Amino acid sequence: MIVLVIGGSGSGKSEYAEMRICNLYKSMMCEKAYTETKMNRLFYIATMQSFSSEEDKKIERHRRLREGKNFETIEQPFDVEKVEDKLVNKSDCFLLECMSNLVANEMFRGDVVVSEDKVVGKITEALSGLIEKSSNAVIVTNNISEDLGNYDDTTKSYISALGKINACLAEKADEVIEVVAGIPITIKGEK
Fold first, then answer.
1. In whole angstroms, how large is the CA radius of gyration of the chain?
2. 182 and 17 in contact (C-beta within 8 Å)?
């Protein structure tokens, strides 16, 4: 099951995504075939880099939210393709939090702005590999393209890259859920 969870900042999407992946993992563990392997793992792929005390607080909040939920945390702010080697069993599940951070980290890495096409290609290829190797995946992303702001070309390129990646993920996903004010709304999948 692939679930894309989208929402604005502070919408409750992270809490919803954690609940979804934990429920998918638990239901998979109840299936006889998986309980016999005893090799099922639940990964939390964290993509945020901290550049301020406010971001440190947000990261700490997310760590507290996932305490006691059996996550193996992988801090991977860029080069998410490196995570694929850690997913060794088809029964492994993962939550990727958050696509908007990953896109920014890849695009604004170092002193040079990486092209939109290169970022989109790299991330979509890496995610295809991760999804193929896991039983259940929940991917969190931000909905930032609805703002009609007048941005510089670099920001427009970032918004466009995130939009293209979100569209690619939505196409591959079994479910797309938008979280608005803490309320999950099914966009694609069973209602």
1. 16
2. no
Amino acid at 113: V
Q: For residue 184, how many other CB atoms are within 10 A of its CB?
A: 19
Using the CB atoms, write b or e for 49-87: b if 16+ within 10 Å.
eeeeeeeeeeeeebeeebeeeebeebebbbebbebbebb
DSSP string covering 39-85: ---EEEEE-----SHHHHHHHHHHHHHTTTTTEEEEE-SS-GGGGGG
| Token reading at 176 | 């797309």
Residue 143 banded pLDDT, cuts 50, 70, 90 = confident
154-180 per-residue burial string, b: 16 or more CB within 10 A, e: under 16: eeebbbebbbbbbebbbeebebbbbbe
CA 97 to chain CA centroid, nearest Å: 4
Which of 65-74, 135-144, 163-172 shows the lowest per-residue confidence on average (mean pLDDT)? 65-74
Show the tokens assigned to 186.
């099914």
Which of 77, 92, 68, 99 has its CA nearest to residue 168? 99
Cα 14 → chain centroid: 9
